[in-house]
Amino acid sequence: MARKTKADALKTRQHLIETAIVQFAARGVSNTTLNDIADAASVTRGALYWHFENKTQLFNELWLQQPPLRDLIQDQLIGRWGDNPLQRLREKLVVGLQYIAQNPRQQALMQILYHKCEFHNDMISEQAIRDKIGLSHQSIRESLQRCVDENLIATSLDLDVIIIILHGSFSGIIKNWLMNPVSYDLYGQAPVLVDNVLKMLSPDGCVMQLMQSENQPG
Fold first, then answer.
1. Which of 34, 41, 142, 194 is most buried (CB neighbours < 10 A)?
2. pTM of this prediction?
3. What digits encode the pLDDT tens for the residues 87-118?
4. How many domains does the chain fold into?
5. What sequence ranges are listed for the domain HTH tetR-type (predicted)?
């Protein structure tokens, strides 16, 4: 029997991680055993233990290697808005929702976070996962501050409060959609969902300009 190479071992390790994502999303983390993952991956339990000491280590590894959502969508941003920080923020939010809507792996990760996991002390923290998979508070705050500086949104806003509201709004949109994906078209409705959330930030007419610009050639 041919000896496995380091590349083979890394491929098996990644296969186990991908299988765990699917199993965790379908069964729930607490209800999924290492046997379930080994069987679904078509490997022996011994092979799984060679890579991961326990389920918590496997759970943590899948999140530690996961790129932030903002990095995953970067090459999909067309950047046609020039230096307009409100338009750029809108584009990131729309593209982020649409990426989730059409990427089964990202949906599975979101499903694990929002519906299929009970956290304990040995796990990577829920906050650390949310920082990767959701809105970047620092990036959003910088974008909002630039919008304030350019009078694109109301200058009286408390940005720290607005970030909490934005996070709650988009987390709720995603969480509810994952519970019943046929309830609305997340991909198709992403622009109008984002525009209606941004209405609370903008002076009269500003968001209407965003919606009108959507149909203009860039």
1. 194
2. 0.87
3. 999 999 999 999 999 999 999 999 999 999 99
4. 2
5. 10-70
